[in-house]
Structure formats: C-alpha cells, structure tokens
C-alpha cells in the first residue's frame, strides 16, 4: 500500500539535498570547530556560513543567532534564559493558552520559581487579540511570548501589531516560529521581535538542531554552561553536520516559499472541496488565512481515536494535533482554548498537514478515504 | 593524514553514517505520532535504548537521551541541585572537571549552593579519602569524572562509589565522556547514580548523548515541553542520531575487546618516542591513565599553537589541551591543578588516540614533531 504522509507539522522528511550537505561533515570535515587545526577551521567556516544564512532569512545579524538542539531548547532558553537574567526588572510574563508545550511547561516552571504568568485567551478562530496583550501589560512585565503560528490549527497571530505595541515597553517579545518559519516571510526588525525560535525537522532539515534568534540587546542567561561555544550562550561541541543541514533546509525553504504556499493552498482546497461535495458533516478549525499546510477539521459524530486508527489502516498518516503530547491523546489544549472543554469539536478533530512529496492525487485519495471513514463511523 | 585529536571529536564509523542516513530518510516519523511511521520511529528508539542499556549493563528505563555531553552534565548537576535543594546545598567535585561540570557548579554557587572543589595530586588524581573528608550532612551531590580529558588521568570512581554507598542521601555523578569504550567501568558495581556519555567521542555523531539515571533518582528537567524521555527531557527525539549512537557504541565496544592491547602498545610506543625528545616533558601520569591520551609540554617557551599549526602542515592533527579551551591562551586547568607550574601548564599539547591509530604512524608523526620543534627553537632562540 502506498502510504500518504500528512503529518508534516509533527515532523517532516529530510530533503535529499540536506542529507547530501551533511555527509561531508561526518566523513571528511569531522573536526571540532573549537580545535585550532585545519579540520577545526573548516568546521568553523561551515558554522559561520550557516549562521549568516539563518540570520539573513529573518533580517537578523549573524551574532544574534544561537544554534540549539531544537525548537524545545530554543523555547526553553527564550523563556527561562530571559526570565532568569531579567528578574531584577520584573517577574511578570505574558503568553497565550495555545502555545506549544515547550513554552507552556517552561512557563509553569517559572511560576514555581516565583514568576507570575498571564495566559491570554484566544477567540474561536484561535487568534489572540492585541488589545488583550495591551491590557495585560504591567510595569513589571519582562517578556511576552506569542507563537507566530499555531502548530495544531495553523492560525497566524497578529505578530506585527503586538510587536508594534511592545515597542515602547521594556518587555522582550519572543515568538515561537517553529511552524511558520520557512513558509511565511518574517523579519525581526519589521515585526519588532526580540527572540524567535526555529526547529530544523519541521522544515525538511535534520532532527536535533534548531536556532534561537536573540536580539543583541537581550540579556539572556544560558541553559547549558561549559565551553565557549555560541559566544558563551550555549555550550556544547557544535553539531556541525546538523547546522550545515539546517542551513541547507533554510536555503531551500527560502527559495521555494512562494511555490509551496500556492501548492499547499491548492492541496487544502482540493481536500476541503472533496469533503464539501461528499455531503459529510465537517467544520474547519482555525482561520482561512492561516498556515497553508495545516488543515484541522472537525468531523461531528466521530472520535479522534477511531478516526486515526482507520486513517492509518487506510495508509494515511494524520494526527490529533500535537504529536509532542507524547503518546496519549489528551484533549487538545488549543481546541479547548478555542471552543471550551464541553465542545464536541475537541473530541472529533483531525489535523492534516502537507509537505514535501505530497501530490494532488495523494490528497484526493486521502480526502476520499477520509470521507468513506467518516461515513462509516457516522453510519451515513 | 594522521589524526591524533580523538578526545576533541572522533571520525564517525562508516556504518554509523549509513544508519543515520537510512533512519533520517526512511524512518523520519516522530516517535510520539500514533500512525505507522511514528510507531516505526518509536520502535527504533526503543531498540536503540535497549541496545545501549544492554551494552552498559543497565535497564533501558535508566537511559535518557540528550543532545550531547554538555547537556547531560548540566542536566545531572542542576537536575540534582534543583530537585534535592531542600535536602541540602552542598556539592563536591574536583578541580579538573570539564567546564560542562565546573561551570554549572559555579552557576549554582551564585544561586546559594556551596561547592567543594577537590584538589588533585601530581598525577592528576583525587582519592576516595578526600571525598570522605569533604562529605557533609548536607552534601547532595558528588561529581567526579572518570577519565580526565586533558591528561587522561583515571579517577578512583569505584572506590568513591563504595564510599558513597554509606551515604544514601548523596547522589554520585560520573562524567564518562572520555572513558567510555577505552577504560572499562561497571556502573552498577561502582554504584553510580548518574553517568554522562557523548556519541561523538566514540565515533557516533554529534547531537546525541546519554545520561544514565539510576532507577529511583529524580531530576528536575532542564528542558520542559512535550514530556519525551520519560518526562525528563523534552524535545522531538533525534532518532537518526540516537540509532547511529547505539551502533557506534556496539562497534566501539567490539573494538575495545579486540584491540585494547594494541592501543596500549601504541600508547607505550608513543611515550617511548616522546620521552626521547629533550624538548618535551610528559605530563600524563604513567600509571592510572587512559590508553588514548598523552599530554606533554614543550620546553623553552615554545608556543603550543604554533606547534599545532606546524604539524597540521604535514597533515598531522593534535591539540593544545582540550578543544574547548584551545582558543584562549589560558593555561591548562588540569595541569595547573597537578602543580606543574604556570609555564608548563601554558605549553601543553595533547595527543589523543582511537582504535584507528597505528604503530606505523608514529615514526612519521614523531619526525614531523622533531622538525616542528627544530623550527620553533630557531624562532625562540
Ligand atoms: C510550535 C512548536 N514549537 C516548538 C516545537 C518543539 O520543537 P522540537 O520538536 O524541535 O523540540 C514544536 C514541535 O514539536 C512546535 O510545533
Ligand atoms: C570530559 C568531557 N566531558 C564533557 C564533554 C562535553 O561533551 P559534548 O562535546 O558532547 O558536549 C567533553 C568534550 O568536550 C569532555 O571531554
């Protein structure tokens, strides 16, 4: 059976060019960038080049990019690193109810350390209102962390407006761009972003690598100490192959951004029109103008577990939302924030996410199979 | 090319790269995903954990994957400190730890913890007796490295473990990054509670490491989020690098079984040659040192960086003390602690071997070293 992978938001296949780019750094140029000899220098050069490329993709300076082991580390560093380094200026943090757990759990940790965290609500489309951010701001607010786009429903947040209104406030502005990066243009200066998280494996790059952008004025204490790497902000022998692979993925993503946006929008329309024509009952979660590759759909009368099992049997890999809630299907905190605990939608929603290698034919087949399953499960 | 910088990083085994590429391209799923591809990744991850646990003779549930040795050391030190701070705020470590142990300790000092840094003797060693004397009612952690990365001195980890068996409230952490696959250590017998390893030091890939966490030890996580790694370490698992690490460990341990005598022979041959060079002083202790690290100093104020560059011209790669500190011109921390004096501590050179190095390389490399010394002496004269 030809399997159809529609879970690119959970993780994505590595682009063949990315693997190719990585291999020389495992075979020929395997040096430790801190070593002063030739191998070390070659490795250092690759890391510098990658840093320049990532910086350019978001309008940052090279010195403002810190390589991490992934999105989770970047988020933890942004939250805990700034909170710890700026606690003398205040202990209030603002975030939203629909952040990834890497942000939410870091916030919970900070609450235990005596910080005060405001979790802003979202509307039924999953959007945060800039007015709410403004109202929540206090003199002792040191950080506002709002994701660029949500990983479960794809909704884009009003980052520009929030950045604008934080311009005059001492609080740093962090955005978790793990899902949006590579698909949506972003510029840290235009959007007044101080910290931004990126993860390699969501953009056809390798796992185990990510980046945190931190504006040069941001005071940040490291999570990992020991060694001079990453200008003392992140110790540990640099994962040169991973960094080079990430850079290649970024390069490809930047070049193909427009094309992917159109492609995925088409796939999205294809899927939704098949659902509409079939006469099944369904509702799209999120907003029309969200990330093009994420389609989160509620199928009233079904439940997530049996939908997923049946889809998997039909060779279709989709998800209930966040893959990162390790294993169990707990009700999605994002859907709960959008629709409330009692809503039937939180038990009947499926996330399809498109990416590298998906074709229109695949989506047609996946949509048709989905329709069959929904009909079967709802006895229609 | 003669690569003698294996303590900085090793060349990945070809089979390791093959595993990485296969998993990265074919089994790229997220282990937390519930579909077929996700479950395949999950199975690969479980398998890697079981293989590594079996090789280390511990339980699979005691293996926590990290991004490397630095993360594992930070996690161990701070994880214990934050988890058990109510029990006490005293930590014992040594003066010669890797910065990824000593710097988190310094961070903890700023947060109100008290740290005792045990001095070492002229052989670069601490004793169990020293640990015993430093132990207090409120000591929550003892962190002692197995093999020192600068001079190769082996610490009496088993004896310290035996001592700490009488102090059930004190957790024992060992940085085994340099020792694994070169110097045997039975982690259960040594009663180790936490143990750090890093893939790229045993021919695996960078981006993967291990913290062994003995059953019953609780740690406050360093990375919060999706709850992967039994809630101890969040972040999408780097399955390709982890699978590759399991393979690297297996091969490295096989090489140990077959080639450890040869490695000792290579080291001895190196020592014999180096001792015969009058401009060189050997720093590595003759006894109780690992079979793959030789540290020596250049006499007469010869600059170690220049020596390293000079050798690199002949495609021979060595390093000045540890890779992490090789950019700044600071004296070697370990050499200073051994009491060799400032000048000798500033001119340290480290040769570090792997099972890939041969006896045949030695005459070539030694000739190049003698030439480099000649050139340097002309400059300094
Ligand atoms: C929005 C968002 N933030 C953070 C992460 C965590 O990134 P990583 O898996 O690289 O740790 C993810 C993915 O799991 C995500 O979707
Ligand atoms: C003894 C020791 N501990 C820890 C580390 C850090 O490991 P990693 O490079 O994987 O961060 C190293 C190597 O740099 C080391 O030699």
TrEMBL record, chain A:
Domain Aminotransferase class V, residue spans:
4-365
Leader sequence range is none
- Tell me yes or no: is Oxidoreductase among this UniProt entry's keywords: no
A GO term for molecular function: cysteine desulfurase activity
- Which reaction does this chain catalyze? (sulfur carrier)-H + L-cysteine = (sulfur carrier)-SH + L-alanine
As recorded in UniProt, coiled-coil segments are: 243-270
Q: What is its EC number?
A: 2.8.1.7
The UniProt keyword set, sorted, is:
Coiled coil, Iron, Iron-sulfur, Metal-binding, Pyridoxal phosphate, Transferase
PROSITE patterns per record:
AA_TRANSFER_CLASS_5
Cofactor(s) recorded for this entry are: pyridoxal 5'-phosphate
To which protein family does this belong? Belongs to the class-V pyridoxal-phosphate-dependent aminotransferase family. NifS/IscS subfamily.
Protein name per its UniProtKB record: cysteine desulfurase
> Organism source for this protein?
Parageobacillus caldoxylosilyticus NBRC 107762
TrEMBL record, chain B:
Keywords carried by this UniProt record: Iron, Iron-sulfur, Metal-binding, Pyridoxal phosphate, Transferase
**So what EC number does this one have?**
2.8.1.7
Q: Which InterPro entries match?
A: Aminotrans_V_dom (IPR000192), Cysteine_dSase (IPR016454), PyrdxlP-dep_Trfase (IPR015424), PyrdxlP-dep_Trfase_major (IPR015421), PyrdxlP-dep_Trfase_small (IPR015422)
The cofactor named in the record is: pyridoxal 5'-phosphate
What are the Aminotransferase class V domain coordinates in residue numbering? 2-362
Top EC group? transferase
* Single GO molecular function: iron-sulfur cluster binding
Family of the protein in this entry: Belongs to the class-V pyridoxal-phosphate-dependent aminotransferase family. NifS/IscS subfamily.
What name goes with this protein?
Cysteine desulfurase
Q: Which organism is it from?
A: Saccharococcus caldoxylosilyticus
């Amino acid at each position: 059976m030809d399997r159809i992978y529609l879970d690119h938001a959970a993780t994505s296949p590595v682009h063949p060019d990315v693997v190719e780019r990585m291999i020389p750094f495992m075979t020929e140029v395997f040096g430790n960038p801190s070593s002063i000899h030739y191998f070390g220098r070659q490795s250092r050069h690759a890391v510098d080049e990658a840093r320049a490329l990532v910086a350019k993709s978001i309008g940052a300076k090279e010195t403002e990019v810190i390589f991490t082991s992934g999105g989770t580390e970047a988020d933890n560093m942004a939250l805990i690193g700034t909170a710890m380094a700026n606690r003398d200026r205040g202990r209030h943090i603002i975030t939203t109810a629909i952040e990834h757990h890497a942000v939410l759990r870091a916030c919970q940790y900070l609450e235990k350390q005596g910080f005060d965290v405001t979790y802003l609500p979202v509307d039924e489309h999953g959007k945060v209102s800039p007015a709410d951010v403004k109202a929540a701001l206090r003199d002792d607010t040191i950080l506002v962390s709002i994701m660029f786009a949500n990983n479960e429903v794809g909704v884009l947040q009003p980052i520009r407006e929030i950045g604008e209104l934080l311009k005059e406030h001492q609080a740093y502005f962090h955005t978790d761009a793990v899902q949006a990066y590579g698909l949506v243009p972003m510029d840290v200066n235009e959007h007044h972003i101080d910290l931004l998280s990126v993860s390699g494996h969501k953009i056809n790059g390798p796992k185990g690598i990510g980046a945190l952008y931190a504006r040069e004025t941001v005071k940040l204490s490291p999570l990992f100490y020991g060694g001079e790497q990453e200008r003392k902000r992140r110790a540990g022998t640099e994962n040169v192959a991973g960094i080079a692979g990430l850079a290649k993925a970024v390069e490809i993503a930047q070049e193909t951004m427009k094309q992917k946006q159109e492609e995925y929008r088409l796939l999205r329309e294809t899927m939704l029109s098949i659902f509409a024509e079939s006469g099944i009952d369904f509702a799209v979660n999120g907003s029309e103008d969200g990330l093009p590759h994420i389609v989160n759909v509620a199928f009233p009368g079904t439940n997530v577990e049996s939908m997923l099992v049946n889809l998997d049997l039909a060779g279709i890999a989709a998800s209930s939302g966040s893959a990162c809630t390790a294993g169990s299907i707990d009700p999605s905190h994002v859907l709960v924030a959008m629709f409330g605990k009692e809503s039937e939608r939180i038990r009947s929603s499926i996330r399809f996410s498109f990416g590298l290698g998906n074709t229109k034919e695949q989506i047609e087949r996946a949509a048709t199979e989905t329709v069959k399953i929904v009909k079967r499960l709802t006895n229609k | 090319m003669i690569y003698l910088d294996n303590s900085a990083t090793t060349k990945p085994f070809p089979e390791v790269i093959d595993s990485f590429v296969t998993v990265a391209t074919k089994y790229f799923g997220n282990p937390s995903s519930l579909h077929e591809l996700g479950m395949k990744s999950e199975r690969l991850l479980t398998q890697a954990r079981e293989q590594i646990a079996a090789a280390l003779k511990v339980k699979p549930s005691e293996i926590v994957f990290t991004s490397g040795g630095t993360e594992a050391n930070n996690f161990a030190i701070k994880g214990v400190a934050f988890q058990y701070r109510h029990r006490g705020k005293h930590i014992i470590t040594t003066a010669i730890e890797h910065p990824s142990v000593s710097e988190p300790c310094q961070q903890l000092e700023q947060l109100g913890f008290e740290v005792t840094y045990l001095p070492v003797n002229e052989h670069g060693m601490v004793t169990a007796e020293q640990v015993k004397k430093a132990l207090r009612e409120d000591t929550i952690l003892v962190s002692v490295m197995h093999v020192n990365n600068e001079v190769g001195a082996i610490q009496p980890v088993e004896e310290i473990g035996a001592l700490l068996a009488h102090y059930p409230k004190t957790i024992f952490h060992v940085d085994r990054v340099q020792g694994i696959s070169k110097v045997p250590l039975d982690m259960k017998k040594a009663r180790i509670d936490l143990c750090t390893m890093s893939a790229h030091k045993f021919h695996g890939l960078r981006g993967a490491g291990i913290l062994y966490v003995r059953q019953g030890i609780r740690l406050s996580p360093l990375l919060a989020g999706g709850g992967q790694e039994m809630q101890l370490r969040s972040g999408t698992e780097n399955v390709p690098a982890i699978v590759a690490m399991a393979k690297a460990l297996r091969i490295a341990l096989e090489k140990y079984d077959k080639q450890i005598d040869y490695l000792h022979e290579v080291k001895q041959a190196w020592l014999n040659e180096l001792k015969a060079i009058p401009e060189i002083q050997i720093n590595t202790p003759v006894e109780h040192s690992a079979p793959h690290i030789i540290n020596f100093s250049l006499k007469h104020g010869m600059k170690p960086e220049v020596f390293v560059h000079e050798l690199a011209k002949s495609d021979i790669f060595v390093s000045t003390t540890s890779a992490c500190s090789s950019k700044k011109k600071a004296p070697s921390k370990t050499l200073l602690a051994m009491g060799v004096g400032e000048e000798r501590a500033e001119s340290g050179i480290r040769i570090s071997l792997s099972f890939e190095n041969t006896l045949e390389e030695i005459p070539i490399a030694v000739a190049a070293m003698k030439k480099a010394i000649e050139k340097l002496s002309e400059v300094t004269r």
